Amino acid sequence: MKRLLSLTLVAGLALAACSSGGGTSAPSGGASAAASSAASSAPSVDASAGASTGASAGASAGASADASAGASSAGGEGGLIGIAMPTKSSARWIADGDNLVNALTDLGYDTDLQFAEDDIPTQVSQIENMITKGAKVLVIAAIDGTTLTDSLQKAAEAGIKVLAYDRLINK
Asked: How many angstroms separate the CA atoms of 73 and 110, rounded?
């Protein structure tokens, strides 16, 4: 339960960081440190409250694309979390992916971050591969929220939790 709360808090912080239009930049570990600190010190924290206070903590303009490609290993105590981002052509998606990987790795999860380069069949294939690898949670910034029905049905059948990141998944 504590890990699920931590994951929810991290996702909320990341979403808040994405929605802030501010030009501030924090050190790349800022979001993960804030998420880890908040998650460990307040087990009954409302994720939306944490998200509003940490809105600028996740902004990182100088994120490295190389660090986000492929899978990241941190011992895997919490299991694998698949992260499906739409493209690397925007620094925003690279930064979001890096921030999620850093925060989740700090919490003891393995991560599999994939970028689909705005190609729907590629994103579907990446999500299905994450399901096959045994991901416990999928964080998906869908290219098209109406085309993932079959993949999300497979995830549901496997008991995998799905978080729609930034973009609504309609079906």
From this structure: 5
User: How far is it, in rounded angstroms, from Cα 171 to Cα 157?
Assistant: 15
Structure tokens at 150: 């079959």
**Cα angle, residue 116 at apex, residues 132 and 138 outer, rounded to 5°:** 40
CA distance 136 to 131: 8
Tell me: the pLDDT tens digits for 25-74? 444 444 433 333 333 333 333 333 333 333 333 333 333 333 334 444 44
CB 138 within 8 A of CB 123: no
The CATH architecture to which 2-164 belongs is: 3-Layer(aba) Sandwich (3.40)
What is the Cα–Cα distance from 29 to 40, expressed in whole angstroms? 16
Query: pTM score, two decimals?
Result: 0.61
CB 86 within 8 A of CB 115: yes
